[in-house]
Write a structure and sequence with these properties.
heterodimer; A: mainly alpha; two-stranded antiparallel sheet; about 0% strand; B: alpha+beta; four-stranded antiparallel sheet; 5 helices; about 30% helix
Amino acid sequence: VLEQVFRENWGRVLASLVGFLGDIELAEDATQEAFVVAAERWRRDELPANPTGWLITTARNRAVDRIRRDRTLQAKTEQLGRELRHESEETMDDTATFPDERLELIFTCCHPALALDAQVGLTLRTLGGLSTEDIARAFLVPFETMSKRLTRAKRKIRDARIPFAVPPDHLLPERLDAVLAVVYLVFNEGWGGGRVDLSAEAIRLGRSLVELMPDEAEAHALLALMLIGHARSAARFRGGELVLLDDQDRSLWDQRRIEEGRQLLERALALHGTGVGGPYLIQAAIADLHLREPRNWEKIELLYQKLEQITGSPVVTMNRAVAIAELEGPQAALALLDPLGLDHYRYYHSTRADLLRRLGRDDEARAAYARALELTRPGPERRFLEHRLADL
Amino acid sequence: VAGSWGRFCLGDEWTHARRTFRRENRHGVRLRPRYSSRRQTTQEGDLLRYALLAYQNVEVRDRRAEEEQRRINAGVAEVLARPNVAGWLRLQDFESATTLRQEQGSTLLTDGPFVDSKDYLGGFIVVEADNLDEALSVARELQELTDASAIEIRPIREEPLVGA
């Protein structure tokens, strides 16, 4: 129970402390301390009426104590120090309500002035409450590397003063895209590597986004997209081996998640109104179509066309080619793939390989599988490709 | 929901250095008071100063017609006259640069800029802003105006030199 309370509160408490202190490193220390105190106390006594309020107040008080003790810290935050004294002299009131500042924190962590991997790491650390060890393990980098990356990002936020604020309207669309992209990247990292924990974490972040931005169609659509994908996670692997959509045992699909995803998709459509939707709305609609039997490839192809128009991404064209293969045959799909220039993208080569295989052009298919294998990390996807290659 | 963060106090040393700098400045550099009238009315915290280092491309420069250059200069002059611009410097063409460099323990004097590239540092502007986003919006404007190949944004280190 405690673990769950902590997980649910980490982001809220940390965000509030960052808003209060203006420094992520200080805020993390204070939050950590408050959680340690809580862990001791709550194991003995009952949970307070308002655990969030209690944690924030305690973390603030700890921060005040620390700043008072530490002269250099005090000099750095002189003005802040004065404000802090007032706060801590008030009697502790754990029923106080604090504004939810997680959204401000997300926009800070996903600021495009930070490197993408730092954005991802920082978001998982601050909002997801994952430890640096966990993040390093999830992204297959040494602990030291991840730790340095996070520290550098936190310092840049402080020194370059990346704002702790929801961006003004004229910047919002671009910046919201960055936030959604980070969450989706976390999800895909978990999806591709078969690491359900990362996908689940992305969904948790997606839920927060929907809660924090109840009027954003794209936030709803992203969560729908992730839920619909995640609903199939139990069926995607059999004995550790990758199972393609058509071969999956549908009874293993999580119907509750699919239903929730569909409802969110409906909501996103309603929020969006008329006209072409955003990229996540279209992708969620495609993901939904893929689960319906028989599959409507015409509709899927049409949606990919729309997606192609907004994103101009060759990866989208590649996915459209898969639909074209179903509608017009592998030959037409190959013609679409060849000029794409996606040589460093593993799915490009595996898609090409599959089309060549279906055309009976085995030698070319072998070469394409070999190239895909070069680009794929060990794991289920790699073994899948190896089996395909061996079957030729 | 706007919030700005990171607050520090500037020592007297800095104020003094600034005054000296202002007294001694030559054409091209203009410094204004740290707080503009617009700022004084807002309750935001201290402003941060950012240097916007503008890199130009030599080929773009050489292709540019005189009239085009005049039009660009007029736009830039308008930006430079704003109250949030604390100072600026334009550099002579990079062909006039001389570089002192350290090579295997000895100091070498060479012709030309430090980095041999088609892009060269053309000058910089110092802007006062609440946060990075504000500085970025000035940079973006300059970029569009001048077709600069890059503008690097660096926060200025304001605290006095330790040990000085």
